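Practice problem 4.
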C-alpha cells in the first residue's frame, strides 16, 4: 500500500491511535508567555487535534498536512475559532506565507524524518527560520535515532486500546540502505480491518540536527528527552526548540 493510500485509510481511526496529548499542549504553552494573539503553523497536523486545542486556548493557527483525507477529517472534527486547515507540502511553506508571519512553527509526531533527504530537512529549517517573527520558535519532535541505532531497537511500544491495536517495527539501516524501514500494522477491532504499511525514514541524529539548525540561522537551541523537558539521553523521544 502506498503512503497516500495508507493515510487515506487510517484517517478515520487516527485519533484512536494518537489521541490529543496534554503534554504536547503544555509544552507549547510553556515556551511562550501567552497564547493570546499567538499565531502558529502546525506542520503535519494530521487530524488537527493539537491545533484545535491551542486555538481554544486563545491562539490563531493554520494546520497543514500533505494528506487530503487527514485535512478533510480535521475540518469536519475541529472547528475552533481562528483556525484553518490546508492541504500543503511542508517543503512549499515559503511560497504560501510571507516572511516573519508566525510566532511558532510546530512539527510533532516524527513528521520531519519522513522527508526524502537530509537536504530537504535543512531546507525545511531554512524556510522555518524565514517564516518566524523575531523571537519566534520552531518546535519539533522526532524519535531519538542515536538511542535507537545505538541500542538496535527494532520494536516501538505497542498501542493497544478498545478501538485499535497498532504495531510498529523498524528494519535498521545497513551499509547499502542508510534509511530505517518503518513497518506498521493497524488492527481496527470493531470492523475487523487490518492495514499494513512501510515507509523509509531518515534516522537523523541530534548532532546533525544541531548543525543543520545552526546553518539555517537559529542561534538558540534546546534538546529534550520528552515533552516534560527531561534531559536528552536514553529516551525514545527527541524534542527540539530552535529560537530565532
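Answer key:
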Amino acid at each position: 500500500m502506498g503512503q497516500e493510500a495508507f493515510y487515506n485509510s487510517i484517517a478515520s481511526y487516527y485519533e484512536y491511535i494518537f489521541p490529543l496529548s496534554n503534554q504536547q499542549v503544555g509544552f507549547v504553552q510553556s515556551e511562550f508567555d501567552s497564547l493570546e494573539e499567538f499565531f502558529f503553523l502546525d506542520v503535519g497536523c494530521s487530524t488537527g487535534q493539537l491545533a484545535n486545542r491551542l486555538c481554544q486556548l486563545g491562539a490563531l493557527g493554520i494546520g497543514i498536512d500533505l494528506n487530503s483525507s487527514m485535512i478533510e477529517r480535521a475540518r469536519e472534527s475541529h472547528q475552533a475559532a481562528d483556525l484553518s486547515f490546508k492541504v500543503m507540502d511542508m517543503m512549499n511553506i515559503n511560497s504560501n506565507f510571507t516572511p516573519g508571519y508566525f510566532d511558532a512553527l510546530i512539527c510533532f509526531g516524527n513528521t520531519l524524518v519522513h522527508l526524502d533527504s537530509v537536504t530537504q530537512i535543512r531546507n525545511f529549517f531554512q524556510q522555518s527560520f524565514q517564516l518566524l517573527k523575531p523571537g519566534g520558535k520552531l518546535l519539533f519532535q522526532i524519535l531519538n535515532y542515536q538511542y535507537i541505532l545505538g541500542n538496535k531497537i527494532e520494536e516501538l511500544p505497542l498501542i493497544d486500546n478498545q478501538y485499535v491495536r497498532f504495531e510498529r517495527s523498524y528494519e535498521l539501516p545497513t551499509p547499502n540502505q542508510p534509511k530505517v524501514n518503518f513497518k506498521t500494522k493497524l488492527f481496527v477491532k470493531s470492523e475487523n480491518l487490518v492495514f499494513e504499511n512501510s515507509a523509509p525514514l531518515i534516522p537523523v541524529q541530534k548532532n546533525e540536527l544541531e548543525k543543520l539548525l545552526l546553518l539555517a540561522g537559529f542561534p538558540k537551541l534546546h534538546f529534550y528527552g520528552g515533552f516534560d523537558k527531561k534531559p536528552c539521553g536514553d529516551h525514545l523521544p527527541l524534542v527540539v526548540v530552535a529560537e530565532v
